[in-house]
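#struct-help
A.M.: can someone run this one for me? Single chain, 101 residues.
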Amino acid sequence: MEHAAKDIPCLSVSGFRAELGFTLAELGEKIGLSKSQMHEVERTERASLRVALRLEELSSGRIDASNLSDDVRLSRHALTVTAESAEASTGQINGLSGGSA
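D.P.: on it. Structure tokens below:
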């Protein structure tokens, strides 16, 4: 649960709902889910990409969408790997151009 700020603990979906004092139906309405769909998200701690990102947004990052959706987790991992690869390539290019001047 590394996505949230380090000094703010990550929440489960049910913990977030309890903190807000919402019913399943009320939180589901904010996200665009029925009460039964919201119950399923709470029970399984799994959600679609859209729902996971909406929960993360509503919780100001205290719910990590990566923990709810493999799509979010894999996308964030791919972005991290791509950024690290780009930094490594830039370093190699800078090293080459610096040595030839």
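A.M.: thanks! Confidence is low (pLDDT under 50) at residues 1-5.
D.P.: also worth noting: Residues 13-100 form a domain with the 434 Repressor (Amino-terminal Domain) fold (CATH 1.10.260).
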